[in-house]
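Q: I'm building a small set of examples for a reading group on sequence design. Run inverse folding on the following structure and report the sequence directly after it, with nothing in between.
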């Protein structure tokens, strides 16, 4: 690993993207999102306006969750086509799309998925290296997208938490890149403050519904684990509020809380059990 390749950062959604069928479809140019399949042959031209004709499909596609499925397939099956496809679809976006394209929410998820999946690719025994032009282009795109994200953060709510966490992931994964240290020094204290505001100890959280609370809790758990892995300073108050949030999440949740296939936010409790070494997930 060198300064132009990402360090592995803990990914709390890795287990949700072990779908070999998805990986095979992407290799074949079949992108299925929001109930629709669009075929994109060869090198994707992400600038094509007709790709945006299905807003729901496009919104999911540009988050690049399937990059994780490609990385899992390459790590598991060790077939070169999965690595080649990752370089083709990610590299094309990095080369052709403006860093300020689309919503900052999609941007935050996209740069995380690129970094998570790239690190996973490198952990495969079959990995050699990315094509130098792809490596350079993707790194520069991540940097520019992160800069745009930092300049356009949501003011409040769980959206700000996720966006701050995306900045932290970039800073930890690419510590030698210009601006990464400043980004880390900004994002990590801000996440501390978000933890205290969003999950107060002495009262029930009022700022979001049960679903958003569980999704945000998963983000804070991932941030805490990465702080442990990379030796970031953690205030005692952060852990106190985090533990209280997990304990509160164990209480009966509203029946109307949605369950999204492959993305059930209640898996936050499983993550908590794994990371905090306590049997939260097994309690009734």
């Amino acid at each position: 690993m060198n300064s132009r390749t990402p360090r592995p950062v803990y990914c709390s959604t890795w287990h949700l993207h072990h779908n070999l069928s998805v990986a095979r479809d992407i290799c074949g140019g079949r992108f299925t999102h929001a109930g629709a399949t669009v075929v994109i042959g060869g090198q994707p031209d992400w600038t094509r306006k007709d790709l945006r004709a299905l807003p729901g499909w496009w919104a999911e596609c540009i988050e690049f969750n399937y990059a994780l499925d490609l990385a899992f397939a390459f790590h598991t099956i060790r077939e070169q086509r999965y690595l080649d496809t990752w370089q083709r679809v990610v590299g094309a976006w990095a080369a052709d799309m403006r860093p300020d394209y689309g919503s900052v929410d999609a941007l935050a998820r996209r740069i995380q998925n690129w970094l998570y999946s790239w690190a996973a690719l490198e952990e495969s025994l079959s990995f050699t290296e990315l094509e130098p032009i792809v490596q350079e282009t993707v790194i520069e795109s991540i940097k520019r997208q992160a800069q745009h994200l930092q300049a356009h953060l949501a003011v409040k709510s769980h959206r700000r938490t996720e966006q701050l966490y995306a900045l932290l992931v970039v800073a930890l994964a690419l510590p030698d890149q210009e601006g990464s240290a400043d980004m880390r020094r900004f994002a990590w204290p801000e996440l501390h403050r978000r933890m205290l505001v969003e999950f107060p100890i002495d009262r029930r959280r009022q700022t979001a519904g049960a679903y958003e609370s569980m999704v945000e809790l998963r983000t804070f758990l991932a941030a805490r684990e990465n702080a442990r892995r990379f030796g970031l300073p953690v205030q005692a108050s952060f852990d106190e509020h985090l533990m209280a949030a997990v304990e509160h999440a164990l209480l009966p949740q509203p029946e109307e809380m949605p369950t999204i296939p492959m993305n059930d936010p209640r898996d936050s409790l499983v993550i908590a059990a794994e990371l905090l070494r306590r049997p939260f997930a097994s309690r009734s």
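Confidence is low (pLDDT under 50) at residues 279-284.
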